[in-house]
Amino acid sequence: MDEFLKQALEIVKAQAGIRAMTEEEMTSMVVKIAASLRSVADGTPCAGPAVESATETHGDPKKAIKEKSITCMECGKTFKVLTKKHLATHDLTADEYREKHGYKKKTSLIAKSLSKARRKKMQEMELWKKKGAKPGKAN
Predict the structure, then answer these.
(1) Distance CA 125, CA 118 (A)
(2) Residues 6+ apart with CB under 8 A from 11
(3) What 3-state DSSP class applies to 62?
(4) Cβ distance 76 to 59 under 8 Å?
């Protein structure tokens, strides 16, 4: 087996151990990395395919926040909430994630239906009203 291919396989194996990857992602990454390693060894300038795969996003950020799910733009998985723990697997904070993918600073990384349900629940709880206050009297 080609030495560059072996090295590329080791790199992709390590990457796959850190994050979930599809079979297609793994094979394309092996090919790109092997070609990059080969071009570096030959002394020819490479076009930087390894950098492209690192900045690759999964879909349109505007379409990522859906009614029942939110799609992580880094790995393509769907969630109800993009948590700090998940974003940490991509070495990002919520603020860095928003900035990287063009979201506004106040955009919540949560599915729309879950956000609506939480808002409705909070309105029903009426936490802004003082306990023990009689209705109709302003304190």
Answers:
(1) 11
(2) 33
(3) helix
(4) yes
Q: Is the pLDDT of residue 40 over 60?
A: yes
Query: Which tokens hold the place of 12?
Result: 């992709």
Q: Residue 78 in 3-state DSSP?
A: strand
Q: Which two structure tokens, joined as six digits, stand for 118?
A: 């939480």
Taking the complete model, does pTM exceed 0.70, yes or no? no
Q: Report whether 30 contacts 12 (CB < 8 A).
A: yes
Q: In angstroms, what CA-CA distances link 7 with 15, 82, 131?
A: 13, 33, 66
CA nearest 77: which of 109, 29, 30? 109
Strand partners, 79: 70
**Residue 21 contacts residue 4 (beta carbons within 8 Å):** no
Here the tokens at position 132 are 């023990």
Pick the CATH number of 61-114 from 3.40.50.261, 1.10.10.1550, 1.25.40.10, 3.40.630.30: 1.10.10.1550
Q: What is the pLDDT of residues 98-111, one digit of tens each?
A: 999 999 999 999 99
Question: Two tokens at 86?
Answer: 């998940």
Question: Greater confidence, 78 or 137?
Answer: 78
